[in-house]
Amino acid sequence: MSCDCCCVTLIIGSLVTIFVLRFIYRALFSQKKPDTRGYKEGWFGKGPGPTEGNATEDTSIRPFKINVPDEVLTDLKNRLELTRFEDPLEDCKFFYGFHSKALRPLVEYWKTKYDWRQQERMLNQFEHFKTKIEGIDVHFMHVKPVLPEGSNIKIFPLMIIHGWPGSFVEFYKLVPLLTTPSPQRNFVFEVICPSIPGYGFSESPHQKGFNGRACARVFLTLMERIGHPKFFVQGGDWGSFIANLMARYYSPRILGLHLNMFFFSLSSWDLVKYLVINFFPFLVRPEEYNIAFPMKKKIAMLMQESGYFHMQTTKPDTLGCAMSDSPAGTAAYLLEKFAAGTNPEGLKKEDGGLTEKFSHDELLTNVMMYWLNNNFTAAARFYKENIRDILSKRHERTPITVPSAVALFPHEVLLYPKMLLSGQMKNLVSYNIMPRGGHFAALEEPELLADDIWNFVEIVKEKYL
């Protein structure tokens, strides 16, 4: 059999596999009555929510300072001291996952050199707050620009939303680039970075049904509560999903949508177009083809790196039992995705290439966001809460009409040519392919991401505002 025939057979087989997996997932998660939790105002706090005649929810905004109790840090160190390691296979690189040969030096650094209190001071350089929405405390970082007295610079509110396995910590290098006025522009940003409930310092939902639509509504309430009925929104990973739900369902509130990963399900027709482009590259620009194709390679990578998705959409609590007991295990599970998501070439290296782009402190501080509040399980549950809507393609029935932008970093997992975005994004005013970078763009390439956000808002300001 020729190489071309083998390639066609593999691609067709991959498509069949995708359709079969989609069928299995739909069979597992289908239900006679649709789950409407998250589509109307809900209650995710402990116990029954406020009812008519009872006290209403406290809507105050409270200053919050990160200050982890000493006993939590002592417990962490004790657990790290007791870490068990199993020898990896010889010469396995990172293809079998995060192995003990790479984990040992990371754990040693965590025990002996990592200084949480120093990281705490770094995190507290910006103002943090909490406010209760639908029964749960929502944490957010709020950074306002400092302008000279009498300045006529326009201030645009911008919400930036993280994803998994990230946190608001990803944005610490990006925020100053957005809140510092540029001499070339007559506007600047006021940045709001919330923690998705169940992540970081936001309280975990206590009731079932907290999905992306519920989170979008909670974040809209947050913005209205701090005085911003209209704003720009940016996101990647789950942040992309939440942000585009804001744009789909609450378009009058959204001035513009900027994404560094577009999270949506391809329709059957889109899959056909994807297959056609694979064999006829001239249908798209060369730079688009180079990042999204060849199909064989992209599908193989997606299948290899998506095992966590199946686990977290089916049995997140089982996985959480292990992670809540082992800080080293939590680090290995989360940081394995930092290796694959930053550059797949890292899989060929003994340590995953992790420290080529990130410092040990940056990596471990992000891991601490899952360990300190014991919320790994809550974060993983977000997958299970959203899987029905993802498979039903419910959200895709409502297109995005607000001014939108997509910045594609070449090592991102989900990459689509512009042709496949137009069916969902009806007002795509900016589509740019970055020269480098991957899934954790804000932490890895903050200057590139900041520049694209600035340029997008400039377009929107001139054309629509």
UniProtKB/TrEMBL annotation:
Entries under Pfam families matching the protein: EHN
GO molecular function list: cis-stilbene-oxide hydrolase activity
Origin species: Oedothorax gibbosus
Cellular compartments annotated: Endoplasmic reticulum membrane; Microsome membrane
Broad EC category: hydrolase
Membrane-spanning segments: 7-25
GO CC list: endoplasmic reticulum membrane
Gene3D superfamilies to which the protein is assigned, alphabetical: alpha/beta hydrolase
Membrane topology label: Single-pass membrane protein
UniProt main location, coarse: endoplasmic reticulum
Superkingdom of this protein's organism: Eukaryota
Name this polypeptide is given: Epoxide hydrolase
Cross-referenced InterPro entries: AB_hydrolase_fold, Epox_hydrolase-like, Epoxide_hydro_N, Epoxide_hydrolase
Tagged with keyword Cell cycle: no
KW Cytoplasm (keyword) present: no
Family as reported in the entry's similarity comment: Belongs to the peptidase S33 family.
Active-site residues, as the UniProt record annotates them: 237 (nucleophile), 383 (proton donor), 439 (proton acceptor)
Enzyme Commission code: 3.3.2.9
Keyword tags: Aromatic hydrocarbons catabolism, Endoplasmic reticulum, Hydrolase, Membrane, Transmembrane, Transmembrane helix
Biological process according to GO: epoxide metabolic process
Catalytic activity: cis-stilbene oxide + H2O = (1R,2R)-hydrobenzoin; 1-(4-methoxyphenyl)-N-methyl-N-[(3-methyloxetan-3-yl)methyl]methanamine + H2O = 2-{[(4-methoxybenzyl)(methyl)amino]methyl}-2-methylpropane-1,3-diol
Domain Epoxide hydrolase N-terminal residue range list: 61-171
